[in-house]
């Protein structure tokens, strides 16, 4: 029995030795292949380092054609602009807005203008009564008659002093009437004796829309009380708040686009503040907005897009040229020479439409636009470092 067990152990040992010999032969063959590949790779790296492009990406001409690779030369942007978007509110053009007040203590007899009504210059606003106006009317009638007689007789007949005295009183009464809000046509009617004593009409000083009215029929109003606010809506303002940014400058005449809902209107900056509002900590920007079709009205909220020029030495690259490096920083691929590309870190600046201002590269640098994403993928697989030269 012991001899049988010994023979089984010997047979098992011989079988293990045979398998060990096969594994050894296969391992040696594998090492030879790996060693050859490593040797070949080492030779390629040595060749790349010898040419000064150890960390560059290289593409053949056929590969560049297949990718449609495009390269541009960075030059300072000529007449390039950027957009700045701001919230805004449509307001009345204060240069084309009129307050129509009562000029003398009066009672409202009737109104001729209503809220939202468009008035032409000279249209009646309201008919009023004033005791003071009655006095003016009586004096003007009397003096105007006297002035007609004196003027017809002539200076030589009535004497220079009386001539000048009557002329002065007549002109003074007409000036007072204009100060009370009377038009020249109304003064002419008074001189002719037309109209009721103390009754007069206030008229629109210019064409515009009745934006507000603050009176009722029969109401007594003191001198200076407003009747209506009249605004010419053919031209409005958009008031925007500019955030404080060092170096941010918005010049008068800067083009602007105003959006209210689906309505777009082109305007221009007519005022740019140089002082922060103490409450909002912003600067006022005022845009003139044409409104010939009266689509916009004061009180509407809007978005304003300002078109601002870039600095003369700004370098602008297409968005497709920017990729992320292994450390997450922005980079572009610089063409060292045709077919050889190196990643360079850049600092992105102002975003433009489909492009971006960048810093960190000199003018004249040739960078990859189309195909940059492919190079970034190859870079990630190769583990190359980004050079920030």
Total beta strand runs: 23
- Give me the side-by-side strand order of the main sheet: 3-12-15-14-13-16
Strand content: 25-35%
Write down the overall geometry.
Answer: rod-shaped
Q: Helices and strands, in N-to-C order?
A: HEHEEEEEEHHHHEEEEEEEEEEEEEEEEH
Show unreliable segments: 1-54, 384-389
Question: Which range best describes the helical content: under 10%, 10-25%, 25-40%, 40-55%, 55-70% or over 70%?
Answer: 25-40%
Structural class: alpha+beta
Describe it for me?
The protein is of the alpha+beta class and 389 residues long. It is built from seven helices and 23 strands. The protein has helices at 2-50, 61-67, 131-153, 155-158, 160-179, 184-191, 372-382, and strands at residues 57-58, 71-73, 81-91, 97-101, 106-111, 118-119, 124-129, 199-203, 208-213, 220-221, 226-231, 235-242, 255-260, 263-272, 283-290, 301-309, 315-318, 323-324, 330-337, 340-345, 347-352, 355-359, 366-368. The strands form six sheets. It has a six-stranded antiparallel beta barrel with strand order 3-12-15-14-13-16. Strand 13 (255-260) and strand 14 (263-272) form a beta hairpin. Helix 3 (131-153) packs antiparallel against helix 5 (160-179). The longest helix is centred in the N-terminal third of the chain and has 49 residues, at 2-50. It is rod-shaped and about 110 Å long. Mean pLDDT is 81; it is low at 1-54 and 384-389.
